[in-house]
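Per your request, structure below.
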């Protein structure tokens, strides 16, 4: 595996990178569409969960256009509210898992003096809630979300983060094309995560390195740092 230059910081996507989203979303997805039908905001069958999982990384408004294109603006707005409500409820019940090795790998990066951040296109309370509930929040210097800052793209969100925290060199780590784009357009090294199982073909093209388990991240550090 090719090693990358030692970064000052590492910026992580959340879903499909740190967090096994499908372990939470299978239940949340079902509950959202049951409620929409009960409230007569949506009358179609529940879309396949794979359609939602395959849309992760997009902004929420774009997710619902893809998952339920026949849904009204009111259904999409209500789905936003329900998604967050049910995600937080299920997280508080213990549902959802980090990928194997995430806490240990993050702690190892911190011990080497590397600053850690999260940048996600999700809603603010969800993006901050997952690390908090899963016990890794204290490892991150900052957690940025499109939901909090109203950014129109991951590129803009990452640029805002690096500017705010004065980050000069970093790795962008994520599983979607939006993460690759955000890293490349901000002049960062890009590490693609190929273990989530719901990415599209060619999605990680342009990455400087690709890992197939989270702990492989440590193998990318320069040898003298190991």
């Amino acid at each position: 595996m090719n090693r990358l230059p030692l970064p000052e910081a590492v910026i992580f996507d959340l879903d499909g990178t740190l967090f096994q989203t499908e372990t939470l979303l299978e239940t949340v997805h079902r509950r959202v569409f049951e409620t929409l039908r009960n409230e007569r905001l949506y009358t179609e069958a529940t879309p396949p969960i794979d359609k939602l999982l395959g849309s992760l990384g997009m902004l929420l408004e774009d997710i619902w256009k893809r998952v339920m294109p026949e849904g009204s603006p009111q259904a999409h707005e209500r789905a936003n509210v329900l998604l967050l409500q049910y995600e937080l409820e299920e997280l508080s019940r213990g549902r959802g898992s980090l990928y194997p090795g995430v806490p240990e790998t993050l702690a190892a990066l911190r011990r080497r003096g590397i600053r850690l951040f999260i940048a996600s296109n999700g809603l603010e309370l969800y993006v901050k809630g997952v690390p908090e509930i899963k016990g890794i929040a204290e490892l991150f210097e900052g957690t940025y979300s499109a939901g909090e800052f109203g950014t129109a793209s991951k590129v803009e969100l990452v640029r805002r983060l690096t500017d705010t925290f004065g980050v000069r060199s970093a790795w962008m780590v994520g599983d979607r094309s939006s993460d690759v784009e955000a890293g490349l357009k901000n002049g960062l090294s890009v590490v693609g995560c190929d273990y989530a199982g719901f990415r599209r073909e060619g999605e990680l093209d342009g990455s400087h390195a690709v890992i197939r388990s989270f702990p492989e991240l440590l193998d990318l550090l320069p040898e003298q740092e190991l």
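The domain at 9-20+97-225 is CATH 3.40.50.1000 (Rossmann fold).

Regards,
D.
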